[in-house]
Structure formats: structure tokens, C-alpha cells
TrEMBL record:
Keywords per UniProt: NADP, Oxidoreductase
Name this polypeptide is given: Prostaglandin-E(2) 9-reductase-like
GO molecular function: oxidoreductase activity
Keyword Oxidoreductase appears in the UniProt entry: yes
Length: 151
């Protein structure tokens, strides 16, 4: 951290790491590491995936159809998508959620209108299956292919 003597400005150096992160791939070890090093974890595919057959193995489960997410959503009168987004925010993960539909965009903003209790957070943690929707198999032979490592 650097404090400038004029203008009362403090500059903070922060790292950012963008990775696939959702309840089926919660990246908890990586998140803990990032927090310990003041690195902000940014989640892409926070709602699973758009299921594009060019990129995603169609045999993988659909995150937003998960019965546990559905039950928690029903309990809080929210959608499974909002539950998945809120889960990430409460863990300290920055979420990138895109939509081309105005209705979904408006719904996503409601993520700030509620909190999940600890028992729901713990239950969602239990969904982790290390399922990677974006595994970039076309690059698996590259010497710097990142998904061969545990993190």
C-alpha cells in the first residue's frame, strides 16, 4: 500500500484472478489462497454454462437444475440463478453474470436484496464436484495447459 502525502490518496496494489467458479466447481482452495495473498477471485460461468455443444460436454449436469439449489431458491422465494450468484458474493468472489435478456438482468440485481444463512452456504459448498464446464480440451496438449494442476 502506498499513501501519497498530498490529496489524501491511498493506492492499493491488488491482483485479480479470473477463473471458472460455481457451486459445482467452487474453487475453495484457490479462493483461500487468493484471500491470503490479497488477490481478488473473479468468477466466470458462475451460473454453470450456456451449454454450447462446441464447448461443453452435454453429459454434464445442468447447474441451475440442481435439486438443492432449487429447494434453497424456493425457501427464499428466489431463482436458482440468484442463489448461485448470492453464494459467490457471500464467499467474497466477484461474479461476472451476463444475460441478453432484460428480465434476467433485472433479476440478477436482486442478488443484493437478501442473504443466505450459514446452513444454506454449507449445503451449497457440498455441491462441489470439481466439474469444469469450460475445460478447453482442444489445448490439453499444450505445455502450459492450466487444468492439469489441482488449482
Amino acid at each position: 500500500m502506498l499513501t501519497l502525502p498530498f490529496h489524501n490518496v491511498t493506492l492499493v496494489r491488488v491482483g485479480i484472478l479470473q477463473v471458472e467458479c460455481h457451486p459445482y466447481l467452487n474453487q475453495s482452495k484457490l479462493l483461500d489462497f487468493c484471500k491470503s495473498k490479497d488477490i481478488v477471485l473473479v468468477a466466470y460461468s458462475a451460473l454453470g454454462s450456456q451449454r454450447d455443444p462446441k464447448w461443453v460436454d452435454q453429459s454434464l449436469p445442468v447447474l441451475l437444475d440442481d435439486p438443492l439449489l432449487g429447494a434453497i431458491a424456493k425457501k427464499h422465494k428466489r431463482s436458482p440463478a440468484l442463489i448461485a450468484l448470492r453464494y459467490q458474493l457471500q464467499r467474497g468472489v466477484v461474479v461476472l453474470a451476463k444475460s441478453y435478456k432484460e428480465k434476467e438482468t433485472k433479476e440478477n440485481i436482486q442478488v443484493f436484496d437478501f442473504e443466505l444463512p450459514p446452513e444454506d452456504m454449507k449445503a451449497i459448498d457440498g455441491l462441489n464436484r470439481n466439474i469444469r464446464y469450460c475445460d478447453f480440451q482442444f489445448a490439453a496438449g499444450h505445455p502450459e495447459y492450466p487444468f492439469s494442476e489441482e488449482y
